[in-house]
Amino acid sequence: MEQTPKHNTESMKRANDTSIYKLITIGVLVGILGVFLRFAGDSTTLSIISWAILGVGAVIACKGVFKILDA
User: Fold this and answer.
1) 71: which residues sit within 8 A by CB, 6+ positions away?
2) Neighbouring C-beta atoms of residue 51, cutoff 10 Å
3) Could you tell me if 52 and 64 are in contact, meaning their C-beta atoms sit under 8 angstroms apart?
4) Dist. CA 6–CA 31, nearest whole Å
5) How far apart are CA 32 and CA 50, in angstroms?
6) How many whole angstroms separate alpha carbon 66 and alpha carbon 62?
7) At residue 6, does pLDDT exceed 70?
8) 10 Å Cβ neighbour count for 62?
9) Tally of CA atoms within 13 A in the half-sphere of 29 that contains its CB
10) How far apart are CA 58 and CA 28, in angstroms?
11) Residue 48 to residue 56: CA distance in whole angstroms
């Protein structure tokens, strides 16, 4: 006998929350900015700053993913 999945559970509602996907999008955009700055110049200072921006973007995006997984 085939079981039908329940789509109205609390975890599904949490996973479909648009604020989580906005957070992931912001994280990806910040990461793209960090990658662009990484290859834009040849300065050590700019390289360190761009790695920091890339790291912040990755943390923001991962935070959104873990919010989905927490549901």
Assistant:
1) 10, 11, 12, 13, 14, 15
2) 14
3) no
4) 35
5) 10
6) 6
7) no
8) 12
9) 6
10) 7
11) 12
Q: Which residue, 24, 18, 22, is CA-closest to 58?
A: 24
What are the pLDDT digits (tens) for 24-47?
Answer: 999 999 999 999 998 887 888 999
Q: Which amino acid is at 35?
A: V
pLDDT at 58 over 80: yes
pLDDT band of 11, cuts 50, 70, 90: confident
Model pLDDT, residue 48: 92
Q: How far apart are CA 17 and CA 7, in angstroms?
A: 14
Angle at 67 between CA 9 and CA 32, to 5 degrees: 135
Average pLDDT, the chain: 87
